[in-house]
Design goal:
Length: 546
């Protein structure tokens, strides 16, 4: 088949109109079109009064060669089926370990299991159902379980999010399609295979994560929940440092030559231990800011105009960027149409926000992080300085919210005017366990407050009503991405600790569910290649646990 891009049609068209548009674009008659299917469907809302649907289609024609000669921009439809590159040897010296059961860890384990390597998955938190109960208890009763929450547990931080499944990563092997197809096999709607900006939502993710676990276990994988890794077992192999296993917090030692480190961006205690053990890491940029909430109906009107509410469009989203006069970039992050702002703390005495939506995106408010880019120059002090920076602002937010896990909040009108909010207005905040109106200026660095104030006015020019006085800002958003990176080589192993495979968002190699899943696949293949090539014998090593 051939791939045809850029077919554009008005809202409300029928299938016959789409077929006619394909024939016109190809310049062929009915008999020459043997078949077609939708590869991607999205919408173009750059002109609010003329919102259009856009399509990428795969077409089968009678004479492909002649058509490609006439229309050289037509390429062949890419092959997207996944073929495991190899299979595990009959006998394994050690099973590979995967630390973390977020999207990266799940897909690393799934692909290793499909290749016959029977991975062991170590997850510090609970299975997804219990984790969901623990998280909702925190939201309702303010009882935080530091090992089972929005950040920790089966499914990773993405479980309590909008469930976005798109990314801007380069993906020449189409591993992103593999991730989507595995999700559909686990119960996701088939719509995600063609939607330009697919998403799933929290409740659907829960059942899908369980089905993916069942698949991995059926293929010989093994899950161990409530198994917090306290450190690596590292020995010498000649001149090089070599992983020989892990030590759990309960004292259990597990031997392994290959360890996938897919721990997510909030495993701060393990980052500290790995640093003490000499695993090379470096500080990296991330962002800090606030969550903003508007009525979803306002965002729909601002994006779609008279087409707001059209079922073909669904709840509107947005993506905004502003370069402030103080040199800071301000942008919208993790926008959740028809969603809620959630409490995302994983440590006692700290407040962190995030956003979440269900598949329906039917809640009354839209929310997004409005965040400011920062670099290691803003938090000097080495690889772990970003963690200290995050903790400091999260502790301030906890205190500003009254020390009860309520979050500090402010009306946009008051934030722009530089005065405290004493009450909220027409927009009811969705954050649980509640908010306390204050002045958010003390909850962020001054440069961030200044940049966000400027950006809100700029965003209002792009989306009329964005700076509405009663819109609610809630603080703070600090976990936009990992504050550090664990460098790895072309073989995906740590540059100074052989057998350790830093992977996913926590290690600095992904930024969302889809990219984390893709990284998990790539790392699994690297582990498989190494294990297949490893010699049976290995010298004795001395072990050290930090």
């Amino acid at each position: 088949m051939l791939r045809l891009h850029g077919v554009r049609l008005p809202l409300g068209h029928d299938e016959a109109t789409l077929r006619a548009a394909v024939l016109r674009r190809l310049g062929i008659g009915e008999d020459a079109l043997l078949g077609w299917r939708i590869a991607r469907r999205g919408h173009d809302a750059r002109r609010r009064g003329a919102v259009a649907l856009t399509y990428t289609l795969d077409v089968s024609v009678a004479d492909e060669a002649a058509l490609q000669t006439r229309l050289p921009d037509l390429a062949r439809t890419p092959e997207t089926g996944y073929r495991p590159p190899l299979h595990a040897p009959a006998r394994l010296r050690h099973r590979p370990l995967v630390i973390g059961a977020g999207p990266c860890g799940i897909f690393a384990a799934l692909m290793l299991a499909r290749m016959g390597f029977r991975p062991i998955i170590l997850e510090r938190g609970q299975a997804v159902r219990q984790r969901t109960r623990d998280t909702f208890r925190f939201w309702r009763e303010r009882v935080l379980d530091a090992e089972s929450n929005v950040q920790f547990g089966e499914g990773g931080a993405g479980t309590f999010s909008d469930g976005k499944l798109y990314s801007q990563i380069k993906d020449p092997h189409h591993y992103g399609r593999v991730v989507l197809e595995e999700f559909v096999a686990a119960g996701a709607p088939e719509e995600i295979l063609i939607a330009a900006r697919p998403h799933i939502g929290t409740f659907r993710l829960v059942s899908m994560v369980e089905k993916l676990r069942a698949t991995i276990e059926a293929l010989g994988g093994e899950y161990r929940f409530a198994s917090r890794v306290a450190g690596l077992r590292i020995g010498q192999r000649g001149e090089a440092r070599q992983v020989h296993g892990v030590q759990l917090a309960d004292g259990t030692a597990i031997e392994a030559d290959h360890v996938v480190l897919a721990i997510g961006h909030s495993a701060r205690d393990l980052f500290h231990t790995l640093h003490e053990q000499g695993v090379r890491m470096e500080a990296k940029p991330f962002s800090i800011g606030l969550r903003i909430e508007h009525p979803q109906s306002l965002i729909d009107r601002a994006r779609f105009g008279v087409h707001a509410g059209n079922p073909a469009l669904g709840a509107a989203d947005y993506r905004l960027v502003h370069h402030a006069r103080n040199g800071r970039a301000v942008y919208s992050f993790c926008m959740c149409p028809g969603g809620t702002v959630v409490a995302a703390a994983s440590e006692a005495g700290r407040v962190v926000t995030n956003g979440m939506s269900q598949y329906s995106r039917a809640e009354r408010n839209a929310n997004a992080g409005i965040v400011v880019g920062i670099t290691p120059a803003d938090y000097p002090g080495g690889p772990l300085a970003g963690i200290a920076f995050q903790r400091a602002w999260e502790a301030r937010a906890f205190a500003a919210g009254g020390g009860t896990y309520a979050a500090p909040a402010q009306r946009v009108a008051d934030f722009l005017a530089g005065r405290p909010s004493t009450a909220l207005g027409a927009v009811l905040p969705s954050y649980q366990p509640g908010v306390l109106p204050i002045d958010l200026a003390g909850c962020l660095p001054e440069y961030a407050t200044v940049a966000i104030r400027e950006a809100l006015a700029a965003f209002d020019r792009q989306l009329p009503g964005f700076a509405m006085g009663d819109a609610v800002l809630t603080g703070v958003e600090t976990r936009t991405s990992s504050p550090l990176r664990i460098p790895r080589g072309a073989d995906f192993q740590s540059v100074n600790t052989a057998g350790l495979y830093p992977a996913g968002e926590g290690a600095g190699y992904a930024g969302g569910i889809l990219s984390a899943g893709v990284d998990g696949i790539k790392v699994a293949e690297a582990v498989a290649r190494s294990m297949a090539a490893m010699d049976a014998g290995e010298p004795t090593a001395s072990f050290a646990v930090g």
